DNA sequence: CCATTTTAGTTTCGTTTGAAACTGTTGCAA
DNA sequence: TTGCAACAGTTTCAAACGAAACTAAAATGG
């Protein structure tokens, strides 16, 4: 099956007199497809562990990176989970409330708090990891071995490129307000 | 480069006495990777049209499906954009405020409102589509022709499977509360 | 040293979201 | 017909979010 490149020249099917502009079909538009897929997957998984353990995605991510028993600072967690520090801060305070995490002020640098999972959280980790991996397998079961390798490659390449484009400063001369029609 | 299947048996690197459970590295975990990638892409793109036209993602999606000049109901928009009806309802009311959309009560069924883009919105469509397609191309430029075809296939397969798993009723006997650990 | 800047993390504020309740309309059935 | 279930869309309310302001503790450097 060829990729069916979207036609750049066909006008929208309506007979309106609009200029002959490239059509865009949401269902073939990569950002849309990624968004829908990621949403479906995350949502399904989140419901699984919300139901079972009462934790949210940010909390799960923190458990995931600390699950080895390591200790690290909030900033380091933020980096490793790709969440921003506000999100991490909030998740941590929830986890303190539910006794999932332990915070001790750093000795040498009292700005950095050292965070460690409690045994309760480690127990959750032990249960949740197999669940998560099982779900991941169920999804990737839709693919052949080759395709899984392809997926790995593609996601890496796309992420690298997306990061690069995100870092690029916004094209100048684009403002919303003074759009004098 | 082989896909480097995650080791199922190696214990976490820490020397703690935890049971020997499968490790999970977030950076190799599909739901996480999808979520981060989709987020990066959507965010970058959203900033682009937020800056240029002052519209949000839901609004952009509505413009995208109505861009051909067609008329449809809110429910149909919801289906086609994979947004839920609340989101659609809110986006529409914003678009009514900014004169991007036109709503007329259906004649035969007064529950269904017929929605059409205004010329102002069609003008935005004409400008935004090339921007969106350009961005998409910039991202997919990271891939070879073959890889683009692969991506198309993979996303379709994964979405189909994810939908299937999402529809499946939650596994019974999983409750958060009575975790008498 | 003291003043300034940088870093780590938290708080605040306004917005966005999602689930559930609600309003109005139509279709169906006694 | 009226009475009730199903449907289309909106509103409400509480939780979640992001940006920016803020606090506190190091690092820098005159």
From TrEMBL, chains A, B:
Spell out the InterPro entries in the cross-references.
Answer: HTH_MarR-typ, Metal_resp_HTH_trans_reg, WH-like_DNA-bd_sf, WH_DNA-bd_sf
Which top-level group of life is the source organism from?
Bacteria
Query: What Pfam families does the database record attribute to this sequence?
Result: MarR_2 (PF12802)
Q: Which Gene3D superfamilies match?
A: Winged helix-like DNA-binding domain superfamily/Winged helix DNA-binding domain
Q: Where is the HTH marR-type domain?
A: 27-160
Alphabetically sorted, this entry's keywords are: DNA-binding, Transcription, Transcription regulation
What's the protein here called? Answer: MarR family transcriptional regulator
Q: Which organism encodes this protein?
A: Azospirillum melinis
């Amino acid at each position: 099956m060829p990729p069916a490149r979207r036609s750049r020249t066909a006008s929208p099917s309506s007979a309106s007199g609009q200029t002959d502009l490239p059509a865009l079909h949401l269902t073939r538009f990569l950002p849309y497809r990624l968004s829908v897929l990621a949403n479906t997957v995350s949502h399904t998984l989140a419901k699984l562990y919300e139901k079972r353990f009462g934790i949210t995605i940010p909390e799960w991510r923190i458990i995931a990176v600390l699950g080895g028993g390591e200790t690290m600072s909030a900033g380091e967690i933020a980096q490793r989970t790709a969440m921003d520090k506000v999100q991490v801060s909030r998740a941590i305070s929830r986890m303190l409330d539910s006794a999932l995490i332990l915070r001790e002020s750093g000795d040498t640098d009292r700005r950095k708090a050292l965070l460690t999972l409690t045994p309760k959280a480690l127990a959750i980790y032990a249960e949740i990891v197999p669940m998560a991996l099982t779900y991941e397998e169920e999804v990737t079961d839709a693919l052949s071995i080759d395709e899984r390798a392809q997926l790995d490659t593609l996601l890496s390449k796309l992420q690298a490129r997306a990061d690069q484009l995100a870092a690029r400063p916004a094209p100048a001369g684009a403002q919303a307000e003074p759009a004098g029609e």
